Amino acid sequence: MTSISLNPTTKYLDGDFGFKPKHENSFLNSKKMNSKGCNMAILQLSLMIFDFVMDILFVSKEGKAVEALYIPSIIFLTVPIGINTIGAFYIISKENKEGLFFDWFTQHEKVASVFTVLSSADIEILSTLHSHLAGFEFFHAPTSTKGKNRIFWISCLTVFVEDIPQMIIQLLYHNSVVTYDIIPLLALISSSLSLLINIIGRSFQAINLYRHGTLEYDATEHKIKIDTNY
């Protein structure tokens, strides 16, 4: 019994009628999480592009300062680019065999092509296409689970053939030169951040894959579904 039922003019109203605060809070929490995810996606994309640019500048401007490191620097720059490029085009070609993805691709061909080319710098850039970034429709690619898994495994490979070797080369360079310019410093910082983020990110994805069978298990979304059922 509520105070509504005690009043003669309101006793026929349903005292239980109204929105559920719990569900509303869940919606607001979900929206807040999406906003944080958007900011994180922008930050990661910016860092990946910046790291790629700094790697190129390091090799082109400072690579010959230490002759012994020049050839390894070129190898561990070009080989990952080749792996990422082949991987990106392979993933897109496989995804285009799926009807939903092909429909999305034909509608947003220019954006998809640009990000496929950018993925030569880092295969994870391809994940931006299904990141729902800023709510743009062209960032809602219906990438299949297999496609996401392929991105994951290629990114794991590049940790060992790109991030770690480049980090070692830049540390050896730091210990071999007398003067240390701004480009090697920025390259070292970006490589360190990139390696750290990749290791942490791939580790969490591996845990999700092992525990939940998916790379992108969303505990918040799972909780919202449970709350809605109640």
Automatic annotation (TrEMBL):
Regions crossing the membrane: 40-58, 70-92, 151-173, 179-201
Taxonomy, superkingdom: Eukaryota
Keywords: Membrane, Transmembrane, Transmembrane helix
Protein name: XK-related protein
Organism of derivation: Diversispora epigaea
